[in-house]
């Protein structure tokens, strides 16, 4: 079964995420991609790859991706968020990042970290599994 990656970006960071995704298209094509509404549409068009689109972040998309984390169905989150422009759904963003910590899901909030995660030989190794916490 393919790993599932979530790609999310705040409005001011969408161009940065799109450029990053285009640079890593060959790698991303190996995974099931999910995204919040507008970002998913932009990614699908830019990459010419299937992207499962959830609702827009402020309309519940962040929470839908959070549900994937809680269900154990998400393998990594690439969330290019804008720390200088607070969003009206900021509590949802914080909850999403909190869930990544709770369930030990790799999360990249900027291009440098996204590059490290996607290029790691451990990330693509089917014999490597992230430790799932037991609560």
From TrEMBL:
Gene3D superfamilies: Methylglyoxal synthase-like domain. It comes from Bowmanella dokdonensis. Its EC number is 4.2.3.3. GO terms for molecular function: methylglyoxal synthase activity. PROSITE patterns: METHYLGLYOXAL_SYNTH, MGS. This is Methylglyoxal synthase. SMART domains: MGS. The active site is at 62 (proton donor/acceptor). GO terms for cellular component: cytosol. It comes from the Bacteria. The gene is mgsA. Substrate binds at residues 10, 14, 36-39, 56-57, 89. Keywords: Lyase. Catalyzes the formation of methylglyoxal from dihydroxyacetone phosphate. It is an enzyme of class 4 (lyase). It catalyses: dihydroxyacetone phosphate = methylglyoxal + phosphate. GO terms for biological process: methylglyoxal biosynthetic process. Belongs to the methylglyoxal synthase family. The keyword Translocase does not apply. Residues 1-135 form the MGS-like domain.
